[in-house]
Write a structure and sequence with these properties.
There is one protein chain. The chain is an alpha/beta fold and 313 residues long. It is built from 14 helices and 10 strands. The strands form 2 sheets. Strands 1-2-10-7-8-9 form a 6-stranded mixed beta sheet, with helices on both faces. The longest helix has 15 residues. The relative contact order is 0.16.
Length: 313
């Protein structure tokens, strides 16, 4: 039974209300049907991750703040932690994959965080973070395997409920480790939740089908959805999504590219590939359209050259 509840999400919303932006919910149209887009790509730091990071760091003790934090991330959680830590005067060390997009590395470094690179195929980011935390006496802040992180991310769902002119019937959410999806599932108990992962990195989908957590296959194909390349989900997020009976699907890089292009051409929104997978599922007809359907655009941190390539394809 999960230890995170909707009450935790509501409390997180009150806690982060000042430091974290309330992002817009905009109307769009696909095949003549109205849909809604929750624009977390417009959040400070370019992604929803600032929500969980802020909620977590605000709950550190004074002694923990003095010793600093260590996080591991391909980019968006890294930047969220870096921004929240800078605001609170906390030292932050971030373990990032060596192939992380330059825009995410530069954004994280610009906030004053120290970056330690690793090889995502051969090294364990968790092990590196644990070693650094032990050496520094710091607190490890995971990107999704933490109740306070999940509660913070769930505030996206509370905003959707407040902003929608009709009750949301289905919320389609990008899924890497599942922190955002599980938080929204808690916040919006009456909505159907559909998670979307990149092809070959659909370990949450496979875990839900098998009833137990399984990692990404060792021969997982390359994907431009770097934000969703999580090798293994957590018991916290898996448990919430399993108990809610969520639907799970995957999309191709080609379908993602179409979604990135749609967001730009129709709304002038810069959305990174991993942040566009929910929209990709709608455009590809993998999720039924209808009244009260919402797609979360979870991030907008994409290298300009890649974005230019995708929108001109």
């Amino acid at each position: 039974m999960t230890r995170v509840t909707r009450k935790d999400v509501v409390q997180a919303a009150a806690r982060i209300e000042g430091p974290v932006e309330r992002t817009p919910l905009i109307e769009s149209e696909i095949s003549g049907v109205r849909v809604w887009l929750k624009c977390e790509c417009l959040q400070t730091g370019g992604a929803f991750k600032l929500r969980g990071a802020t909620n977590r760091l605000l709950q550190l003790s004074e002694a923990e703040r003095e010793r600093g934090v260590v996080a591991f991330s391909s980019g968006n959680h890294a930047r969220g932690i870096a921004i929240a830590a800078k605001r609170l005067g906390i030292r932050a060390t971030i373990v990032m994959p060596s192939d992380a997009p330059a825009v995410k590395v530069d954004g994280t470094r610009a906030e004053g965080a120290e970056i330690i690179f690793y090889d995502r195929r051969t090294e364990s980011r968790e092990a590196i973070a644990a070693r650094l935390a032990k050496e520094q006496g710091a607190t490890v802040v995971p990107s999704f395997d933490d109740e306070r992180i999940v509660a913070g991310q769930g505030t996206v769902g509370l905003e959707i409920l407040e902003q929608m002119p009709v009750a949301p019937k289905r919320i389609v959410v990008p899924c890497g480790g599942g922190g955002l999806a599980s938080g929204i599932a808690l916040a919006c108990p009456d909505a159907q939740i559909t998670i979307v992962e990149p092809d070959g990195w659909d370990d949450m989908c496979r875990s839900l089908k098998l009833g137990q957590i399984v990692p990404v296959e060792t021969d997982a194909p390359p994907t431009m959805c770097d934000a969703l390349q999580t090798p293994r989900v957590s018991p916290i997020t898996f448990g919430i999504l399993r108990d809610r009976g969520v639907a799970a699907i995957s999309v191709t890089d080609s379908e993602v590219g179409r979604a990135v292009r749609f967001a730009w051409e129709q709304h002038g929104l810069v959305v990174e590939p991993g942040g566009a997978v929910a929209l990709a599922a709608l455009l590809a007809g993998k999720v039924a359209l209808g009244e009260g359907v919402v797609a979360v655009l979870s991030g907008g941190n994409v290298d300009p050259a890649l974005h230019e390539q995708l929108i001109r394809a």
